[in-house]
């Protein structure tokens, strides 16, 4: 959705604009927030953060703007900022300072870990590519179960499958994934 | 949990990887609606605050909601301890089905002899029975609870029902884990059950609170489980060990292949047992629905039979009615429908119709084909409380004429390819049927018919039949090819003298014979045209007298033999109609139109263009 499209829709109906923006970017925002808060926040916290982000955008976007580009960049920036704030807020309250926090501070303070970061990104990319190569629905099941922490029942409902079938597929897919990854030197 | 830690590498991903993760469908409609609602509420609050000129800080304080984590971390630690190598046995409560067979087999897998396989059969039966229970518990059933003691608080989503466990097997989450580990290996527990038992951050299967254990019960779980049992009764199972080594022994594990039942479907259960912590556990298993024997497979045959029944009810004379008991006539959009009282034993009411097919088709399929019982053009209808059916004026029937072939099979879906023939047209259709395992039953998701081959072959045979009828009718109406006697019959009509000759024909002995032949082979509009042409200047071409058929003695230029030497081809073929282009030698081409009327192909027109 472009900025102009959003503004034009907003002129017709604010509700329609909010709904359209949300539908367009909800999955993207959720992915950003979850990726940051996965190890520190509950599902409800994550939902709260996502709703804060959209409230920010609904409230803060300049409707007189003549920006005609994709709003994804703007949405992504607001989402990342909010997610990082939420992360620090949560970790500060729990008195917990994780490795991720250390990485973040180190990254802010110096560029000495750029190479390590680059390696990690390469590994992530390889992992995701290998997961993708499992094909559907296994790749979706693997990420939903082991990354997004969804139960078999929840996954089953989303994919119109039986929970036991999801578990079966997840177990097999994980085996396959481990085999594929070990062939490229990655151990899960 | 091991798997969760592995995927931590995906955290703090870059934009490219975030984009990939964003493509995974994870949010339900309810979750999205909830977050959108929350966003709108927050927007309203901010707008109100802005309107009252309260300054909203550019950096919002993140106020953590009231949700809190459950005992997952503590439970995680217990699991780690439990995996340290010590076997976890059930120490109280329900005993296994067989009196502790575990202790009878303590030798390593590679030392098992034939005398031990009987004992292994017992173990396998017990483990499979346990597996059923683990699946039931994981689905939210099979645990005794006190439904008057429900855990409620702001921290628990109203979507979940946590009741205090009264089941003597479980007092703590540790007990649950121990029970599960009685039947499943460490790997199987981690892969299949750990996530469910501990939950992620909000909805574990079990939770400890107020000194008690609570269970997230699903009322529908027991209903589902009644039809879901891997394995037949203990007495019927006879384990067949896979042929890897003497008894399928490999890598300190034993493979097994067991005849089993999934609901009423015979299948085979394949898996692996390992000796872990001194006792045998299931390491993995899979269900094979024996689809390689498609022709004898009860799943395949029952689905094909139901599809045939459904199509017959939808398009043909598939429902018994009392044809003398017309109960209702409707006229929708100019289309008249007559509904007769249903006498078919399968259906007593409108809801019976859907229920009858409910177990064999998915909701999607039934929804797409719901005009069988509702909506415009519905075939079944209730009139004054009586179930009625629109008796089709066709006799369309389907017959499968090939063996079913199974493709793309896995544990939860497969495709059937089969050929069926449609009567009375006689054309064949290559069917492709997608079947899925949903809610413990195999169901048809969609079915398509590819009759493109029909377009190449059957049109030709239809054309041949149509041309034969066309030339016959033309000859009767305009030709002079019927046999005649020499004795004329002279009639005087309105002052005109008309001469008739007696028709000598095996085919036509009355005017109605001729009319019936024409009407059987022509659409109404063409029939009207021929009826008109059966009069010449007001005089009928055919009359009957003294039980004999006479033909008007007039010039009849049409040469039926023309049809025998004509070349022809079919054009513009559709399922509704097509055109035959006839090219007689030494004459200009002409066109004959053929139309499908309620399943019968009839002549509908003839023209030079």
TrEMBL record, chain A:
The organism's lineage? Bacteria, Bacillati, Bacillota, Clostridia, Eubacteriales
* UniProt key word Cytoplasm: no
The UniProt entry's sequence similarity note says: Belongs to the sigma-70 factor family. ECF subfamily.
User: What is the originating organism of this protein?
Assistant: Ruminococcus flavefaciens
Please report a single Pfam family linked to this protein. Sigma70_r4_2
For molecular function, the Gene Ontology terms on record are: DNA binding; sigma factor activity
Please list the residue ranges annotated as the RNA polymerase sigma factor 70 region 4 type domain. Answer: 126-177
Q: Which NCBIfam families match?
A: sigma70-ECF (TIGR02937)
Q: Which UniProt keywords apply?
A: DNA-binding, Sigma factor, Transcription, Transcription regulation
The molecule here is called: RNA polymerase sigma-70 factor (ECF subfamily)
Q: Which domain of life is it from?
A: Bacteria
Q: Name one GO biological process term.
A: DNA-templated transcription initiation
From TrEMBL, chain B:
List where the protein spans the membrane.
70-90
Give a yes or no for keyword Transmembrane helix in this entry.
Answer: yes
Which keywords annotate this record? Membrane, Transmembrane, Transmembrane helix
Q: What is this protein called?
A: Uncharacterized protein
This chain's source organism reads Ruminococcus flavefaciens
For this protein's source organism, the top of the classification is: Bacteria, Bacillati, Bacillota, Clostridia, Eubacteriales
């Amino acid at each position: 959705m472009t900025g102009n499209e959003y503004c034009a829709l907003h002129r017709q109906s604010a509700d329609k604009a909010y709904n359209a923006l949300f539908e367009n970017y909800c999955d993207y925002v959720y992915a950003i927030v979850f990726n940051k808060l996965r190890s520190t926040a509950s599902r409800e916290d994550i939902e709260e953060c996502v709703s804060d982000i959209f409230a920010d955008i609904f409230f803060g976007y300049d409707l007189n703007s003549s920006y005609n580009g994709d709003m994804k960049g703007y949405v992504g920036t607001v989402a990342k900022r909010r997610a990082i704030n939420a992360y620090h807020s949560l970790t500060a309250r729990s008195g917990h300072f994780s490795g991720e926090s250390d990485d973040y501070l180190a990254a802010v303070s110096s560029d000495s870990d750029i190479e390590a970061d680059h390696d990690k990104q390469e590994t992530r990319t390889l992992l995701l590519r290998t997961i993708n190569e499992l094909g559907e629905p296994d790749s979706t099941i693997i990420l939903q179960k082991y990354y997004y922490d969804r139960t078999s029942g929840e996954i089953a409902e989303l994919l119109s499958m039986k929970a036991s079938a999801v578990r079966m597929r997840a177990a097999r897919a994980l085996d396959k994934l481990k085999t594929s990854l070990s062939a490229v030197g990655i151990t899960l | 949990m091991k798997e969760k830690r592995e995927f931590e590498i995906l955290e703090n991903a870059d934009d490219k990887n975030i984009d990939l993760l964003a493509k995974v469908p994870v949010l339900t409609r309810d979750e999205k609606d909830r977050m959108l609602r929350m966003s709108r509420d927050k927007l309203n609050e901010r707008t109100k605050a802005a309107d009252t000129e309260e300054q909203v800080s550019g950096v919002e304080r993140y106020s953590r909601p009231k949700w809190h984590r459950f005992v997952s971390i503590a439970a995680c630690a217990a699991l780690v301890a439990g995996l340290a190598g010590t076997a976890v046995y059930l120490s109280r409560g329900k005993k296994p089905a067989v009196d502790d067979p575990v202790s009878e087999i303590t030798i390593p897998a590679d030392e098992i002899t034939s005398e031990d396989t009987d004992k292994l059969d017992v173990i396998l039966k017990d483990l499979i029975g346990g597996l059923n229970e683990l699946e039931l518990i994981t689905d939210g059933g099979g645990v005794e609870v006190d439904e008057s003691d429900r855990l409620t608080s702001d921290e628990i989503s109203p979507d979940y029902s946590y009741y205090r466990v009264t089941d003597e097997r479980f007092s703590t989450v540790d007990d649950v884990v121990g029970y599960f580990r009685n039947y499943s290996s460490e790997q199987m527990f981690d892969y299949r059950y750990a996530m469910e038992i501990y939950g992620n951050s909000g909805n574990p299967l079990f939770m400890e609170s107020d000194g008690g254990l609570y269970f997230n019960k699903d009322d529908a779980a027991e209903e589902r489980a009644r039809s879901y049992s891997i394995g037949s009764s203990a007495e019927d199972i006879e384990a067949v060990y896979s042929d890897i080594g003497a008894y399928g022994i490999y890598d300190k594990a034993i493979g097994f292949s067991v005849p089993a039942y999934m609901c009423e479907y015979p299948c085979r259960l394949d898996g692996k047992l390992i000796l872990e912590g001194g006792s045998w556990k299931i390491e993995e298993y899979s269900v094979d629905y024996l689809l390689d024997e498609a022709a004898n497979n009860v799943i395949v045959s029952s689905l094909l039979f139901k599809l045939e029944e459904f199509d017959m009810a939808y398009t043909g004379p598939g429902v018994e009615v009392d044809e003398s008991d017309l109960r209702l006539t409707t006229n929708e959009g100019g289309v008249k429908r007559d509904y007769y009282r249903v006498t078919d034993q399968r259906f007593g009411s409108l809801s019976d119709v859907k229920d009858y097919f409910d177990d064999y088709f998915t909701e999607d399929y039934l929804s797409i084909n719901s005009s069988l019982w509702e909506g415009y053009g519905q075939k079944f209808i209730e009139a004054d409380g009586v179930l009625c059916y629109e008796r089709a004026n066709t006799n369309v029937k389907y017959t499968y004429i090939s063996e079913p072939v199974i493709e793309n099979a896995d544990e939860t879906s497969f495709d059937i390819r089969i050929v069926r023939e449609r009567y009375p047209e006689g054309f064949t259709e290559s069917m492709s049927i997608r079947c899925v395992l949903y809610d413990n039953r195999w169901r048809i998701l969609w079915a398509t018919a590819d009759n493109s081959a029909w377009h190449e072959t059957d049109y030709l045979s239809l054309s041949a039949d149509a041309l034969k009828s066309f030339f016959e009718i033309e000859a009767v109406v305009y030709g002079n090819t019927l046999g005649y006697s020499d004795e004329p019959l002279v009639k005087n009509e309105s002052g005109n003298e008309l001469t008739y000759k007696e028709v000598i024909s095996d085919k036509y002995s009355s005017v109605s014979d001729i009319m019936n032949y024409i009407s059987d082979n022509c659409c109404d509009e063409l029939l009207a045209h021929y009826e008109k042409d059966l009069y010449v200047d007001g005089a009928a071409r055919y009359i009957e007298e003294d039980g004999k058929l006479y033909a008007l003695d007039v010039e009849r230029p049409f040469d039926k033999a023309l049809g025998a030497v004509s070349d022809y081809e079919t054009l513009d073929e559709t399922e509704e109609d097509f055109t035959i282009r006839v090219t007689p030698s030494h004459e200009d081409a002409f066109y004959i139109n053929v139309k499908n009327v309620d399943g019968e192909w009839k002549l509908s027109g003839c023209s030079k263009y």
